[in-house]
Amino acid sequence: MDPNSSQRASVTVADVARKAGVSKATAARVLGGYGTVSDRVRDAVTVAARALDYRPNELARSMTTGRSGTIGVVVGDIENPFFSLAVRGITDIARQAGFTVILINSGEDVSAEKAAIRTLVAKRVDGLIVSPAKESDVEHLREAARSGRPLALLDRGSEAFEVDTVIADDRHAAAGITRQLIELGHRRIAYITACDTPDRVFHTPNDINTGSVRRRVEGFLDTCREAGLPAMERWVYMGAVTPEQTRQIAKRMLEGKNRPTAVIASDSVIGLEIFKTSRLIGLAIPQELSLISFHDADWTAVTSPPVTVVRQPVYQLGETAAKLLVERLNGNDTAPRKVVLRTEVVERASVARLLED
Amino acid sequence: MDPNSSQRASVTVADVARKAGVSKATAARVLGGYGTVSDRVRDAVTVAARALDYRPNELARSMTTGRSGTIGVVVGDIENPFFSLAVRGITDIARQAGFTVILINSGEDVSAEKAAIRTLVAKRVDGLIVSPAKESDVEHLREAARSGRPLALLDRGSEAFEVDTVIADDRHAAAGITRQLIELGHRRIAYITACDTPDRVFHTPNDINTGSVRRRVEGFLDTCREAGLPAMERWVYMGAVTPEQTRQIAKRMLEGKNRPTAVIASDSVIGLEIFKTSRLIGLAIPQELSLISFHDADWTAVTSPPVTVVRQPVYQLGETAAKLLVERLNGNDTAPRKVVLRTEVVERASVARLLED
DNA sequence: ATTATGTATGAGACCGGTCTCTTTTCGATT
DNA sequence: AATCGAAAAGAGACCGGTCTCATACATAAT
């Protein structure tokens, strides 16, 4: 009833204009900060706006300008420290550039990813950063890019898809630690990942959908082959999706007769489970089992022994993806760029020379 | 030039209507899924939409409906595992209820929080979930709530502000572990938190802006007082904002002559630094120093010794906040609710009876 | 004094949907 | 065949901004 009840029905430029005794167009010029206005009128409008507690409607603004000031981010799982750190990098840069971030988890599921992208496009995000679940299945990404919305890929690229991409030098890192393990005398080296195949058995790297992991496995296998260790395919363990599943796989793997003497964990969540399991079944690290994990998670430094890891520049991964995207948003129209960030092996104490054979 | 170039200028209902040979209103009915349409027309419109690759503009839809299908989330730092897990809970419920999430980090800074909320209101989010940096400074939240947008507070409430709130029973948890330490003979018990005061010294719980931490410190002090330990205020350490600062504080604290025999860490990031520092300066846990940390972070189970923690239902905290909000969004108009979730002490091996005194 | 130049303001279309109100169509009823 | 009522379709206003274009007025140039 009371028109002053401020509640309901937000205040619009028209309301402010009426109160200030000017036209809607003029009030809009002041409020929107464009065009030319006299100081007198500017003050009048500003006062009126304050009095009415005017709040601009960004939605309406986006309608005409065509820019929403929003970027959409699709990651596998924000709960994973890898992604939460990368997202931090993205949001920092985005905020700096005046954008807000809409975040959607895909759960590493392609159909969820498709739905997420549809939603984001419907909401008219200005650009997209995606960590694609399957690098072979990118038609929806291609399409989003075709719609004129800049796109940047995070941590996982696609060879067949030319678009701004930021990844770590996973192949190189995997090759390095593999070589190191071989030089220390290891021959039975396992690689364990969350990725999975329909039949749960690894045949070739092409079975692996996640780009970063595929590159690592390639590095692992190639290095083994060069060192005269063929057919290491059977040492690639898949399906470590949840901690529970990982524990089961680890148990079967480590209790077997022909158990590996070294394990490479594809991320820190898996690394943690391997560590727990080896302790559980009484396998001493590093005397009886060497362990190297990807991702320098905080806990890896405080275990006994502390674990050797491949440190990825996760925050920078996110930051860089956001920077590339913002450049596009600012009109950069050059060819797609692939940025590869360097990793670093942090030597701790979970790796040892193999004594007997 | 080529009108078929699909690129630029997105396809609108009007375009679809023209192609299908019906009015804009009718096409909108089909595309928007409302009103009544004949099967024949529905098919025609659907076919036309597909042919033109029509993508609804959610922005335009939001304009008229007044609902954006978005909820705004403001947390201290998504990089902190506590928040990333809570956010996961929020996004899961939000997605289920058909909402997307706009995420903004406040960095525990009130002015950033204010800016974030202004942005979110401008973007016309349907509701807000905020983890307020200062529970004393909530005028901006109150205002956001007054604008008719439902609001739920996460992990931190405000006594003076009646609004849906989800917290853990921090006071109870702190009292419990304090009592336990006292019973084990500890008298010099330190509490260390990231919260800070201008003069970096703790005087009274009212100095603490973060609701959850204030309640814990109150529980700590009250229990000490009841047990005949007065003036424990000097054992509250503040300003452990970054790992570096925490390390410095921990060093000074643990190397002092009159060092504490037990430490309560207010979160897992701090707990990790205490653990590292005590190892660095050669203080054996638990023989020479007992440690209890809030937040059951993954690493706490794998250290030697594993550390005793207060397990908070973090995911549920986020989930519940989102549920309360969604209920409001669906029209629930009852009095504000305060939900307190129970914590649980996970006994591990970082706490021991104090031998000599 | 008259015309040119530029600045300040107003009027109204527009963005892409939704929604109300009116008109047309069609099947059922008597 | 005439009448009625509901279903289907159309016309056009509306949401809250931006933006183009026209107009009014002031100042400067001739």
Q: Would you summarize the structure shown here?
A:
By secondary structure, chain A is α/β, with parallel strands linked by helices. The first copy, chain A, has twelve helices and twelve strands. Chain A has a six-stranded parallel sheet with strand order 2-1-3-4-5-11, sandwiched between helices.
Reconstruct the topology from this structure.
Two copies of one chain form a homodimer.
Chain A (H helix, E strand, L loop, with lengths): L12 H8 L3 H9 L6 H14 L5 H8 L4 E6 L5 H16 L3 E6 L4 H13 L4 E4 L8 H8 L4 E4 L9 E5 L1 H14 L5 E4 L18 H16 L9 E2 L5 H13 L6 E4 L2 H13 L9 E5 L13 E4 L2 H16 L8 E4 L2 E3 L11
Parallel strand pairs in A: 1-2, 1-3, 3-4, 4-5, 5-11, 6-7, 6-8, 8-9, 9-10
Antiparallel strand pairs in A: 10-12
Helix pairs in contact in A: 1-2, 1-3, 2-3, 5-12, 8-9, 10-11
The structure holds a DNA duplex (30 and 30 nucleotides).
